[in-house]
Structures are given as C-alpha cells and as structure tokens.
Amino acid sequence: MTRAGYVTLLGQANAGKSTLMNAMLGQALSIVTARPQTTWRRVTGLLSRGGAQFIFLDTPGLLEPRDLLQRSLLAQALEALREADVLVVVLDPVERGRPELRERIREAVQKSAAPVVLVLNKMDAATEEAMEREEAWARDVLKARVHRVSALTGEGVAELLDTLEALLPQGPFLYPADDVATDPVRFFVAERVRETVMERYRDEIPYSVFAQVEEYREDGRKTYIQVTLYVERASQKGILIGNKGEAIRALGREAREKIEHFLGEEVYLDLWVKVLPGWRRKKAHLRRLGFSVPEDDVTP
Ligand SMILES: Nc1nc2c(ncn2[C@@H]2O[C@H](COP(=O)(O)OP(=O)(O)OP(=O)(O)O)[C@@H](O)[C@H]2O)c(=O)[nH]1
Ligand SMILES: [Mg+2]
Q: What is the pLDDT of residues 157-177, one digit of tens each?
C-alpha cells in the first residue's frame, strides 16, 4: 500500500519555508533570498521515495496585506492551507515576527483539519533559549508535535521527512514517480531572474519587479530566452538598466548563470524592461502577470 498527499508549508515570511522544501527535495526548486516576501506564488515540489509521494506546497509568507499583490499572496497561502493533508508550520526562532502573524498562524492551525507538524527552523543560528520559547508556544498554543531542524545545513530534515511520511494518507501516487515539479520550466527560469533582482537591488526594487518569460525558443544552438522585467515606474526602469545598460548586463550575466545551472545547458538570455504602472495595486495588471486575485476583491 502506497501513501501520497499534500504537505503544505506555512509560516511567516523569511522563516525558511522555501529553503526547507528545497532541502526535503534535495534540489533548489523554489527561490530563496535573505529578504522577506521572496515567494510570490505557491510552488509545488514532488518527492517520491519508496512507497511514499510527498506533494509539497511552498507558499508565500503569511502577512498583513497592504496592497493587492499582498492580498493575492495571502489568499494563495490560505488556499494551499485548505488543500493540506499534512500541515507544516515553519517558525523562525531568530526573528519571531509580529504578534498579529502569530495570531494568523494560530488561526490557520485551528482551522485546519489536517495533522500539524511544527518546525523550529534555523537551529544552527537560534539560541537554546529562543528554541525553548518557541517550543513552549507550540506545545501550549498549537498543541502540535515539534521538530527542530536547520533547512540550511540539513540537520533534522531526514527525521522530519519520516514523521511526515507516516502522516500521509494511504493511496496511489498522484504524479509520475520521477517528476519533481508541476510548474513549467519557464516559471522557474523567470523566478531565477527575479531572485537575482531581489539579491542585487535594495529598497523598493526587489518588490516592484516581476519577471516573465515571453519567448523560449529551443531551435538554435543555444536556447533563446526572452524575459521581460515589469516595473511599477519609469524611474525604476532607469535604475534597472543603469548607466549605458551596465546594470542590466551585469544582472543578465548573473541570472543567466543561475538559469544554466538550473537547466544544465547554456542559454542566451535577453532581458527587457517594461513599465506597467502601479502593477502591484491593479487587478488587471496582476491578472495579466498570472496572479490570482481573490474573487471578492472589489479594488479596481
Ligand atoms: N541560519 C539559517 N538560515 C536559514 C535557514 N533556513 C533558511 N534560512 C535563511 O533564511 C532566509 C529566508 O529563507 P527562505 O527560504 O527564502 O524563507 P521563506 O520562508 O521561503 O520566505 P518567504 O518566501 O519570503 O515567505 C534566507 O536567507 C535563508 O538562507 C536555516 O536553517 N538556518
Ligand atoms: Mg519562500
């Protein structure tokens, strides 16, 4: 008898959800940066080992939304919560986060019918005192079982997987055993460009740029990939391009190396920048960029 099911990773921004999913998959699928709010969509990662198939759902960090994009992020995280067969709540003992977010986590756990596993991440960096404080909160408030891990070093990840496997529902595999992802390669390519932007720029730029693959041609010697970076304002376009295009060339080189590493082949990366005024706040723009906007949202 095999087991298969959805394992949703939920938690505040920067807790290490994407790093943890990648560690469990043994592959850098979701992008990771030192900045909060790196993940902007739910990312599915598949792990099949022996008689078990884990369908991990990496989600945007829980937040108190301040614009339409953030409302879309929160809605996606909550939707993934509803699909969970097993819920993994990832906590960051180093940066505890605002009390409202703890409240959101508590609500999510209470609403979920799925078994809950609480992960205290960053055990390589957190003090024993901080770990114990979080463990007490988990025990008293969430009444969940607790695992200490470091998604960064891999410590505790194997034991966590064993716990999760035992909680998966019995049933047939839902995807072919050697699949790792359900999203198209184009998505992961665009994400690598966005990851590079988030790492190289500061202030508002990391949060104002969305990357989308517009063309992907495999007919030449090298795969040709055209990615458009959508920005909110003309001034941001100038910053991205830089003096005589120097900045965007450097960005392109770094992003291309990441893409080549991910795909295992050489590519030609062509970056364009377009202004989509105030896209984070406009329903039509967000839809065009592939974000789902909550139906009940009345903002134009
Ligand atoms: N020291 C340490 N750092 C970690 C660990 N796990 C993740 N990080 C770091 O924490 C930061 C955020 O990691 P992410 O995986 O992007 O966090 P996330 O929860 O997916 O964040 P959002 O997508 O913004 O919600 C990165 O700088 C990671 O390298 C860990 O176990 N130990
Ligand atoms: Mg993430």
A: 999 999 999 999 999 999 999
CATH of the domain at 283: 3.30.300.20
**pLDDT for the residue numbered 299:** 54
Ligand nearest to the CA of 91: 1
Q: How far apart are CA 59 and CA 41, in angstroms?
A: 6
Spell 242-276 as b/e; 16+ CB within 10 A means b. eeeeebbeebbebbbebbbebeeeebebebebeeb
Residue 294 resides in a domain: no
**pLDDT of res. 187:** 98
Q: At what angle do helices 246-263 and 234-241 cross, to 10 degrees?
A: 70
Q: Is 71 within a domain?
A: yes
Report the separation in Å between the CA atom of 242 and the middle of ligand 2, taken as the mean of its atom positions.
28
Q: Which residues of the chain have pLDDT under 70?
A: 296-300
172 Cα: distance to centroid of ligand 1 (angstroms) = 32
Ligand nearest to the CA of 24: 1
Atom number, ligand 1, closest to the C-alpha of residue 21: 15
Among 32, 57, 94, 123, say which to mutate for ligand 1: greatest number of ligand atoms within 8 Å of CB: 32
Contact 108, 81 (CB under 8 A): yes
What is the Cα–Cα distance from 86 to 92, expressed in whole angstroms?
20
- The response to whether residue 208 sits with its C-beta less than 6 Å from ligand 1 reads no
The minimum-distance atom of ligand 1 relative to the CA of 58 is 20
Report the side by side order of strands in the sheet with 86-91.
43-49, 52-58, 3-11, 86-91, 116-120, 145-148
Domain that holds residue 72: 3-167
Q: What is the pLDDT of residue 144?
A: 86
